[in-house]
Amino acid sequence: MAVQTVASSTDSVNLGPAAALSCRECGHRVPLGPVFACEECFGPLEIAYDFSGYDTEELRKRIEAGPANIWRYAPLLPVPADVADKPNLNPGWTKLVQADNLARELGVTGGLYVKDDSGNPTHSFKDRVVAQALEAARVFGFTTLSCSSTGNLAGAVGAAAARAGFRTCVFIPHDLEQGKIVMAAIYGGDLVGIEGNYDDVNRFCSELIGDPAGEGWGFVNVNLRPYYAEGSKTLAYEIAEQLGWRLPDQIVVPIASGSQLTKIDKGLQELIKLGLVEDKPYKIFGAQAEGCSPVSVAFKAGNDVVRPQKPNTIAKSLAIGNPADGPYVLDIARRTGGAVEDVTDEEIVDAIKLLARTEGIFAETAGGVTVGVTRKLIENGVLDPAKTTVVLNTGDGLKTLDAVAGTGLTATIRPNLDSFREAGLA
Amino acid sequence: MAVQTVASSTDSVNLGPAAALSCRECGHRVPLGPVFACEECFGPLEIAYDFSGYDTEELRKRIEAGPANIWRYAPLLPVPADVADKPNLNPGWTKLVQADNLARELGVTGGLYVKDDSGNPTHSFKDRVVAQALEAARVFGFTTLSCSSTGNLAGAVGAAAARAGFRTCVFIPHDLEQGKIVMAAIYGGDLVGIEGNYDDVNRFCSELIGDPAGEGWGFVNVNLRPYYAEGSKTLAYEIAEQLGWRLPDQIVVPIASGSQLTKIDKGLQELIKLGLVEDKPYKIFGAQAEGCSPVSVAFKAGNDVVRPQKPNTIAKSLAIGNPADGPYVLDIARRTGGAVEDVTDEEIVDAIKLLARTEGIFAETAGGVTVGVTRKLIENGVLDPAKTTVVLNTGDGLKTLDAVAGTGLTATIRPNLDSFREAGLA
Lengths: 426, 426
Description:
Two copies of one chain form a homodimer. By secondary structure, the first copy, chain A, is α/β, with parallel strands linked by helices. Among the domains of chain A are: 1-50, no CATH class; 96-123 and 231-404, Rossmann fold (3-Layer(aba) Sandwich), CATH 3.40.50. Chain A is 35% helix and 15% strand. Chain A has 14 helices and 14 strands. Chain A has helices at 56-64, 100-106, 126-139, 152-164, 178-185, 198-209, 225-230, 233-242, 259-273, 294-301, 326-336, 345-359, 365-379, 417-422, and strands at 18-23, 29-30, 45-49, 96-98, 112-116, 144-148, 167-173, 190-194, 217-219, 250-254, 283-289, 339-343, 389-393, 411-413. Chain A has a six-stranded mixed beta sheet with strand order 4-5-13-10-11-12, with helices on both faces. A four-stranded parallel beta sheet of chain A has the order 8-7-6-9, with helices on both faces. In chain A, β7, α5 (178-185) and β8 (190-194) form a beta-alpha-beta unit. Chains A and B meet through α4, α5, β8, α6 and α12 of A and α4, α5, β8, α6 and α12 of B. β14 (411-413) of chain A pairs parallel with β8 (190-194) of chain B, so a sheet runs across the interface. Chains A, B: It holds the Pfam family PALP.
């Protein structure tokens, strides 16, 4: 991991309550800047905040009076106070769907909710994280936004950059499906295919950051990663506020790098510390596909170390074989009394159909993973059906149509009533 | 057109302010019921309301305190007052995007906004209309929801019915693209392929309504059409409220059957009558694809009659060659001082890319039609760039990927800096 020097003077950095970067491993603090690894121990840097001076009820009122997007939580994010006035996609404040039909099917009696992030502008939770990276890029004076991606992120970066007036140069494996290339290319920036797999793309991006050619470039998931990652906290804030400023008892989160799960925990902890919700126990459950289940395997084996896997699953947006935040996910699942579980590709498809059939929500494969894992955890007696449970759907089924391509017509008939009756549909 | 008898006693019909059905042609009134054609003259029936007793400022407050979906306007829709408590997809309250970048490209100085209905639950405006039909179906005691569709509507009906607990039986041409079949089938109801084209599907549905086999079936766009169509009024309400209870000067609306445009006009007129906005002139512009432009052709020729066309355009969701509301669209365009214009398939693709590149909105082909027509109307001096203008995007680009399939990689490189430099991207 390359440690980049801070490009601009940090005296002028205005990212709201963000006070510094702090190493998750050794606690070493550095000023806010486009850096992502600790200069002391190479651990990951994350945002440290100064929330002092916040009055709980004033803060709650300010949030409730805010816009119907993530910027209602600007006082808790690494963004300038006037962020809502700057051109961006205004993601978030997606629906928390009370899933009574699904609850009946799964035997949940304590209240079941689906946090449906397919309602975001580019139809995945990535809009939340990209929006944070964008503000950091503005503050640090970057003029080009970049990332390595297998699809969803490329679209989210392309769309956000278009609205905000940034140049983009996004890197993807050259042999992605045509549909994903279109979704990423439509926003008109440079889209570069790399002859190699996603690991090759990542390695190349790290090389580019250290090179003069990459100067002035903000890689949302590399040198802007500490800012980017905080966007997932907004999922926690919204869930709690939409439940009436109440913590859920149980929450089921998909695991790719594991970052989202750790930031949801961070967000819930902040709400408790700020007095916005009652301090009560909650359990966080991680969900993986069997074909890419390094964290689930480690959890079940009682290991602290996550052994990398070579992914082979239809849940491609979760297919990170060596998840950077895997050990932190294990910590959180164990500390909160949760668990990490995985489901097969067949169970993922079944769960996508179950969610669509019961709630009218067409989820990406990642949503099939969380719903499938929820069902499995209930069957195994690990998740308590009498408790309030929130399941995340982080993307849209329109992006992973191939996974359910077998779904089709009930019948084919000629356009007359006799043919209709013969088909037994009356 | 078959005239169906009213299935249930209308004494018990509670659809809020909806008072009766009224013939658009002869004014003949009939009680609320699942009928769609006048028994006197076979003209189309539409909802007549009783808005008496509304106090303007009370109504405004009630709306503003309502939920962030179409049900904030329940007092103005044919739905029971407690509609928001019933399980449904809660569509609407989509973003009105201030499109400053697009405005610069098009030379608009008076304020340009995109009403982006891709933010609806199934990513098209169809969720608005289906939600109304669903409430009517509940009230009339239907247990099966049905429709004829070429894709978008089938998905909207499937999703809404799943959430609300209706059985569905949806009819589509049997040879639709596999992706559209998946989008419609995923919600688990019956999806029946008809050996024939969309006209054959429509004719079959009309036959089924008159047959005992179709008893208890609500066809959202046939026998529930008067209720269904009112959903488009919510676009007008939202635009005005999101502009700060102000009418836009100009609004560009796509034309398929023409129903949406007529209901937007109806909605704006209601806001004026209710005193919720200032009574001032506005112009409504209709947008078609050249390959299916019967209304545009009639407008330009100065005709009152719309001559049917055989559609041939990539804008398939607008490809209705014999639009039922065509004459009403002509009336409204002429009365308000608007116009109807069309663009070629090439201009549609260019406009999709323009909107994506400037505002990060990936529109369906129908959105390409409205943006393309807006550009053309400005170039021709018909649309005034100094006035506040709203352009509708009624669907999502993910649903019409084929239309922009040529969009692709800027470059393909090997994963090293030399290859990157050779490509001239630095």
